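Workshop exercise sheet. Pairs work together: one partner reads the sequence aloud, the other fills in the structure field after running the prediction. Swap roles for the next sheet.
Pair: D.N. / O.F.
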Amino acid sequence: MSRRSFRRTVRNVIVPGRWVRFPLETFEQARKRASDIAAVVDDHLMPPWKASPHVGPKFRDVRSLSDAEIATIVAWAEGDAPEGDKADMPAAPKFPDDWELGTPDLVLDIGAEYDVPATGEDIYRCFVVPTGLTEDKYVSAVEFRAGNRSVVHHILAYVDISGKSA
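Structure field:
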């Protein structure tokens, strides 16, 4: 597997300073987890991307992998995870500390602190966050920023157009 394909697979998912089950910042860390990586990629669990390519408009910067990329990752793992050509390694991605998509037009806050225990099961906590908007608006991008990015890994978001959430 090329280093470029691997970087594309884990970009925005494995980010230094943010929550991860295990680090994947070095080749040796990746080699150690090769079978795990192949399994979650082959099952379409990683990289996380729930949008269907068959419904609605096409998204920019899609995180899903093609069938060919998945096959390459699986073959890499099954082939004892060879390191490949170091010359093929792209530069490490840069992750800004500020907004990744640029300065937002609207920032919503859950309105309260929420403590996450240091140990235990994953927590699925629902927050109702009113927008305060008085008219319909088009949304072209959404970015979520946890207060403590080292403990929040995934966010599920829903829009209640009925106004009945409380």
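Discussion prompt: The two ends are 48 Å apart (CA to CA). What would you look at next?
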